[in-house]
Amino acid sequence: MNKIIIKTQEELDKWRKSIKSDINFVPTMGNLHEGHKELIKEAKNSSRNITLVSVFINPLQFDNKEDLKNYPKTINQDITVAFSTGADAIFIPSNDDIYPQNYKKCFHIKASKELSETLCGVKRVGHFDGVCTVVYRLISLIKPKNIYLGEKDWQQLLILKKMVEDMKLNVKIKSIPTQRDLDGIPFSSRNELLSASERNIVKLFSNELAEAQKKFTKTKELNLSRILEKLDLASVSVEYLEHLNPYNLKRAETTDNISYLAGAIKCGKTRLIDHVFLMKRNPIIAIDGPAGSGKSTVTKLIANKLNLLYLDTGAMYRALSWFLIKEKINYFQENKLKDILSNISIVFKTNSQSDQDVFINNFCVTKEIRSQEISSIVSEISSIKEIREFLVKEQRKIGESGGLVAEGRDIGTTVFPNAELKIFLTASIDERAKRRKSDLQNRGSNEIDLNELKELIRKRDNEDSSREISPLKQAEDAIEFITDGFSINEVVEKIIEIYNDRIPKEIQTN
Ligand code: AMP
Q1: DSSP 34
Q2: Please, is 11 exposed, middle or buried when counting C-beta atoms within 10 Å of its C-beta (0-12, 13-18, 19+)?
Q3: pLDDT value for 196
Q4: Per the residue annotation, which of 33, 36, 127, 275 is the catalytic one?
Q5: Largest CB tally within 10 Å, which of 184, 218, 358, 476?
Q6: Average of per-residue pLDDT values in the chain
Q7: Is 60 helix (H, G, I), strand (E, B) or coil?
Q8: Residues 222, 212: contact at Cβ < 8 Å?
Q9: In a mutational test of the pocket of ligand 1, which residue from 128, 135, 149, 181 has the highest number of ligand atoms less than 8 Å from its CB?
């Protein structure tokens, strides 16, 4: 496809009609650097769509005339950089194209109040309204399928996601982690304006944040006033430095697993922002749902694709059942059971086929636990209170440092109630019965009555949701996913999309 430079709305409309693919859109204000290049590469490589980069310095988002005047303008260089990085088209509109009736009089989009009246929004009044207005306008002109934004401007990213959601705009927002220079400073067009000594100050600031993150990972503690003191001693002029919940931008709570330390500094006339995410443990995905909803297949695939540990809680119940039978233990004798459990260790290890083996007290029982004998008693064994308590404790131990996806019927409610992402995977009884029938047919059983299967599933659902210990129930903050009509791959892709949308990439790449 020929590379094209588009300068007016008419040219854009004409081009839009001539192309057959969807558009991946990268909005920028020019002076393209490594951060922008990474966005363009991500837009280019993530699908076969056409990549369009816009370069438009939006007057509406500048709260300071001097800043607008000084903003680096390097359009010829930007064209070369965008095309050589993979852009198919560049849109360089004029003020009149974006704001036909003079931007002061034109439509205005209001940014979410909760998200925009903090951090950068305190000093830069109206800035986020200006950002929302221009992005809304660009989306309506370009009609992209996806829009690519940097986590470097995390507050802006949250605000734009909220705008897209509230206004039900038909576009998906994708993000990339903050790209940093070798000295740790995030790439930014405004870095051009810094003198060598000012750049040193910015470096001190970014390095202090990185240091705080490192310390937090070890100690789970943050001493905000100590950091501010240090920055003050180093003559860094801090506009704000706050420790917040990364989603609602309210003060971070001790219960927040992921939090966000964000700051802005002034270096001469230049104002720069930076942030780090702090994490007590790596993220956890919890997948609950009734029997036969495809939890284990989906969970395994997600673990594989996201390179997370797969916590197969069912295998733990099965392994324990195997052990109790092998040792001929009467598991209803409560006192003895507690002692026995205290000497049991269950671990997972990846084998040479990249599958997971399960070991109980050093016996590999991966195959053994799939026997009919185990299947027929595991349900009864898992309803024993002591066993449940023991395994929940073991599961939490495995999940202590996170980085896993777990499935079970009480994972999001009991085992990991503070998982970052909870999915309640379900399907109608009809659908689950149909899946079960085809599964059984694939294994050679032909005499299966669909109505009987439906009845069995209904009975199992009732038992699971009315049992005394950890009944099957959707956690309040879980996303219900009814999978009727979806293929396994579609379900997996959808859950990964939600995960990517929720968990900052900067944390995912740690
Ligand atoms: P700007 O040209 O500054 O308006 O930025 C355009 C897009 O590039 C925004 O989505 C920014 O968040 C993103 N961006 C800017 N700098 C970086 C960076 N250092 N790393 C990642 N994304 C960035």
Answers
A1: H
A2: middle
A3: 96
A4: 36
A5: 358
A6: 94
A7: helix
A8: yes
A9: 149
Task: State the Cα–Cα distance between residues 279 and 263, nearest whole angstrom.
Answer: 17
Residue 78 beta carbon below 6 angstroms from any ligand 1 atom: no
Kindly tell me the burial class for residue 279, based on how many C-beta atoms sit within 10 Å of its own C-beta (0-12, 13-18, 19 or more): buried
Residue 238, helix vs strand vs coil: strand
Between CA 290 and CA 292 the distance in angstroms is: 6
**Which of 97, 96, 79 has the alpha carbon at shortest distance from 88?**
79
Residues 6+ apart with CB under 8 A from 198: 267, 268, 270
State how far the Cα of 83 lies from the Cα of 169, in Å rounded to an integer.
Answer: 28
DSSP state of 414: I
Q: Which two tokens stand for residue 369?
A: 């636990």
pLDDT, average across residues 12-30:
97
399 has pLDDT over 70: yes
User: Cβ contacts of residue 241 below 8 Å, gap of 6+?
Assistant: 224, 227, 228, 231, 261, 262, 263
Say if residue 336's pLDDT is above 90: no
Instruction: Specify whether the backbone of 301 is left (phi greater than 0), alpha (psi in -120 to 50) or beta.
Output: alpha
More confident position, 326 or 446: 326
Q: What does the alpha-carbon distance between residue 312 and residue 32 come to, in Å, rounded to a whole number? A: 46
Which tokens is 457 given? 């599933």
Segment 42-77, tens digit of pLDDT: 999 999 999 999 999 999 999 899 999 999 999 999
Burial of 413 (0-12, 13-18, 19+ CB in 10 A): buried
Write the CB contacts of 447 (distance below 8 Å, at least 6 apart in sequence).
none
For ligand 1, atom 6, name the residue with the nearest CA.
Answer: 28
The verdict on the CB of residue 150 being under 6 Å from ligand 1 is: yes
Q: How far is the CA of 325 from the centre of ligand 1 (A)?
A: 60
Q: What is the pLDDT of residue 103?
A: 66
Q: Is the CB of 188 under 6 A from ligand 1?
A: yes
Whether 29 lines ligand 1, by a CB cut-off of 6 Å, is: yes
Q: Which two tokens stand for residue 32?
A: 């393209």
Residue 510 reports pLDDT greater than 60: no
For residue 134, the SS3 value is: helix
Identify the helix (H) or strand (E) that includes residue 422. strand 421-426
In Å, the largest CA–CA distance within the chain is 84
- 487 exposure class (CB count in 10 Å sphere: 0-12, 13-18, 19+): exposed
Separation in Å, CA 245 to CA 218, 257, 287, 497: 20, 9, 24, 21
Strands 23-28 and 146-150, how do they pair?
A: parallel
Question: At 372, is the pLDDT very low, low, confident or very high (cuts 50, 70, 90)?
Answer: confident
